[in-house]
Write a structure and sequence with these properties.
The complex is a heterodimer of chains A (about 280) and B (about 400).
Chain A (H helix, E strand, L loop, with lengths): L31 E8 L12 H10 L1 H6 L2 H6 E8 L3 E5 L4 E4 L10 E2 L16 H21 L8 E6 L13 H16 L7 E6 L5 H7 L4 E3 L5 H15 L5 H21 E2 L3
Parallel strand pairs in A: 1-2, 1-6, 6-7, 7-8
Antiparallel strand pairs in A: 2-3, 2-5, 3-4
Helix pairs in contact in A: 1-7
Chain B lengths: L1 E6 L4 E10 L4 E5 L5 E6 L5 H14 L3 H4 L15 E5 L5 E6 L6 E2 L1 H4 L1 H7 L5 H20 L12 E3 L5 E3 L7 E3 L2 E3 L22 H16 L9 E2 L8 H6 L11 E4 L10 H11 L1 H5 L7 H11 L5 E3 L7 E3 L6 H12 L4 E2 L14 E2 L16 E2 L16
Parallel strand pairs in B: 16-18
Antiparallel strand pairs in B: 1-2, 1-5, 2-3, 3-4, 4-6, 5-6, 7-8, 8-9, 10-11, 12-13, 13-17, 14-15
Helix pairs in contact in B: 5-6, 5-10, 6-8
Classes of the chains: A alpha/beta (about 280), B alpha+beta (about 400).
């Protein structure tokens, strides 16, 4: 019996992959950055007997083990977590804590998907969506630039919003479609831009989300996944990210993700209760 | 919750655990039927055509055309549909198939250095060579019986420890039956021949041959895609397909892309195989499908490299095998280059979260001089994760 280090083609398991470890990228595959923009406003603390934030925490906690078995996914996908309530914070994976968005660093804040270890999240505050999307877009562009400088082939970043509510300003005043329009215009512009400026925005609404306002931001990229638990949502999100990473246009990404969501919905309808 | 399905004869099965998903449909383990999986396609693009396609494939399984492809008593080479099923609720169609997880691992487990260490630890370069030969033979046999794979890609391929390859997703094969063409319209980026990229052109044997060359390159080059690399002219990286359409390929033009210094050296390829790769990937091979080596030609060339005397064991590391054409071990070279570029990895503890340092400095085109290792943060390894048994994922060997 040889050890992993002795076998393999070349340097084996501790070879190129050892650069970031068995669950990380090897430097010999493309990179797919994804940014998860997670709503942790006060509404996520409801319902009191089974708060949604507890479900999110549980789903995030075993997320890395769930994807660990998928060789291509864990070598390709890298995740940045942006959490927002009244304030926007970004997961600093080195500190293992959420830090104020002004300290966000695209060189540091993306981790291989098999290594995501977020702290327990608390639901609190309003739904300051616009500053959160601003941070996400800056991180997406910054990450792509950083990897391109390292000469790492990087695919177009994907920004996934997960929300259960309606956007407000930092003081809790609800925003209307007109106030969302400038951000919607900015999102359309980055989606239409060519590489290396482009990224794709997708919005997932869970129970209570305001579909009409989400569709202002993502007319073709809004999915309502009410009644689907967060573990399934995270799986869907990463699976779709791998599948659409090399798709050519943002329109095709939206179509493909919508098709997959529809397939999943159809499958749930086929299920029978065994009890 | 589960999905209940039944065959036309009225037999029922229960699908409880999802084990994978394809470009169309989801694959489940079959409750109390080890050795079987079921694919359910809830929304086929054309339900009547999909049903007819499954009918024909099932009938063909009893014809001489396919019995040659499915020899009894050997590990399966094709997860051929065994039975058509419909769901008890709703109107979805699907089929039962042999579960390749029983005998094989996903091909990704051989292509990814990290997964290989975990799941196929005894695999060497010779295993990659055997797998490439086995895949070429499988394609040659399918082509001889007038099947085109069309959506040939790692996710649809499986391999065992001996390097024998099997194909899943048989229901997406392209074939003609009773005068009707059953087309394969699936495309997978990175695994599409240039004439089919962004095109409605249906795949054919020559487009399969192109993708075979891509997969053979990955199998022999430690997973490296032949069109991998950052454009050397400074233009932004878009995708493998973009590099392909623009002729950016290290094997054809070293100056076209920038690759990490620790990428497997090109000269590890035996001269005969290098020539075949060039015929598939150079300007002529990209433009003119008829000049690409066929699967049969690949199979012969790859088997030749497995003949006695053609493979050499490295004296220093029992896991290192290479072609006799290479005077010394390419894998020892690669290890040395990696050691120069990247500080030895150390295992990460729970208290010490994953850093995200980038891999080593990248070599410019034609760059040969070793550069001093750049001062970087410590590279950390992630905790070895648990293994979830699923299609498309890797399992314990």
């Amino acid at each position: 019996m040889t050890t992993a280090e002795e076998s393999g083609f070349g340097p084996g398991a501790s070879g190129p992959a050892g650069v970031s470890g068995p669950s990380g990228p090897s430097g010999l595959c493309e990179r797919q950055p994804i940014i998860i923009v997670l709503d942790v406003s006060a509404s996520m603390a409801r319902p009191a007997d089974a708060p949604r934030i507890a479900e999110v925490n549980a789903a995030l906690a075993d997320f890395s083990t769930r994807v660990a078995a998928q060789a291509r996914m864990r070598e390709q996908v890298e995740v940045c977590l942006v959490a927002f309530g009244s304030e926007v914070r970004v997961l600093d994976p080195v500190a293992g804590a959420l830090v104020d968005a002004e300290h966000a660093d695209p060189a540091r804040d993306f981790v291989p998907v098999g290594q995501l270890e977020p702290p327990q999240l608390r639901a609190d505050g309003y739904t300051a969506l616009l500053p959160a999307l601003d941070v996400a877009l800056r991180l997406a562009a910054g990450r792509r630039r950083h990897l391109a400088e390292q000469r790492v082939p990087v695919l177009r970043p994907l920004v996934w919003l997960l929300t259960d509510g309606a956007p407000s300003d930092e003081h809790g005043r609800p925003l209307d479609a007109e106030e969302l329009a400038p951000m919607a215009g900015r999102l359309r512009a980055v989606e239409a831009a060519g590489p290396p400026e482009d990224c794709v925005f997708l919005a997932i609404g869970v129970r209570g989300a305001d579909r009409e306002l989400l569709e202002v931001l993502a007319p073709r990229g809004t999915l309502m996944l009410e009644g689907v638990n967060f573990t399934e949502i995270l799986k869907f999100l990463v699976r779709s990210s791998v599948r659409v990473g090399r798709v050519t246009t943002s329109g095709e990404v939206h179509d493909e993700v919508a098709r997959e969501a529809e397939e999943r919905r159809a499958l749930r309808e086929l299920e029978v209760d065994l009890l | 919750m589960a999905i209940r399905v039944r065959s036309r004869a009225g037999r029922e099965w229960l699908l409880t655990e999802e084990v994978g998903s394809g470009s169309e449909g989801v694959v489940y383990a079959v409750h109390r039927a080890p050795g079987l999986v079921a694919k359910v396609v809830p929304r086929p693009r054309d339900p009547a055509a999909y049903r007819r396609r499954l009918d024909r494939l099932l009938r063909q399984a009893r014809e001489p055309r396919t019995s040659r492809l499915l020899p009894a008593g050997q590990p399966p080479r094709l997860a051929w549909p065994l039975e058509i099923v419909t769901t008890a609720r709703g109107t979805a169609v699907g089929c039962l198939m042999p579960d390749l997880r029983v005998t094989h691992q996903p091909l990704e487990c051989l292509l990814s250095p990290a997964a290989r260490g975990e799941h196929l630890p005894a695999a060497t370069w010779a295993t990659g060579l055997r797998a490439a030969a086995s895949l070429a033979e499988l394609l040659a046999d399918l082509h001889a019986e007038e099947y085109v794979v069309g959506d040939l890609k790692p996710e649809n391929l499986w391999v065992n420890a001996a390097g024998a390859v099997a194909l899943a997703d048989v229901d997406s094969l392209q074939f003609v039956d009773g005068g009707e063409t059953f087309p394969c319209r699936m495309r997978s980026a990175g695994y599409t021949a240039p004439e089919c990229v962004d095109s409605e052109t249906l795949p054919d044997r020559a487009s399969d041959s192109f993708v075979l060359a891509v997969l053979a390159h990955q199998l022999l080059m430690d997973g490296l895609h032949p069109f991998h690399g950052h454009p050397a002219d400074g233009s932004p990286y878009v995708s493998f397909d973009d590099n392909l359409l623009r002729g950016r390929c290290r094997l054809v033009d070293r100056a076209s892309v920038v690759l990490p210094r620790f990428a497997p050296p090109l000269d590890l390829l035996p001269a005969g195989l290098s020539r075949l790769f060039r015929r598939a990937f150079d300007a002529a091979g990209r433009r003119d499908p008829s000049v690409r080596p066929s699967p049969a030609e690949w199979a012969r060339a790859l088997r030749r490299e497995l003949a006695p005397g053609r493979l050499v064991a490295c004296g220093r590391d029992p896991g290192h095998w290479h072609s006799v054409d290479r005077p010394w071990c390419p894998w020892c070279d690669q290890r040395a280059r990696l050691a120069r570029e990247v500080p030895a990895p150390r295992r990460r503890t729970k208290a010490e979260p994953a850093g995200n340092a980038e891999p080593a400095a990248h070599a410019g085109p034609e760059a040969n001089e070793p550069r001093a290792a750049a001062a970087r943060g410590t590279h950390r390894r992630g905790a070895v994760a648990s293994h979830e048994s699923r299609r498309g994922g890797c399992r314990d060997a």
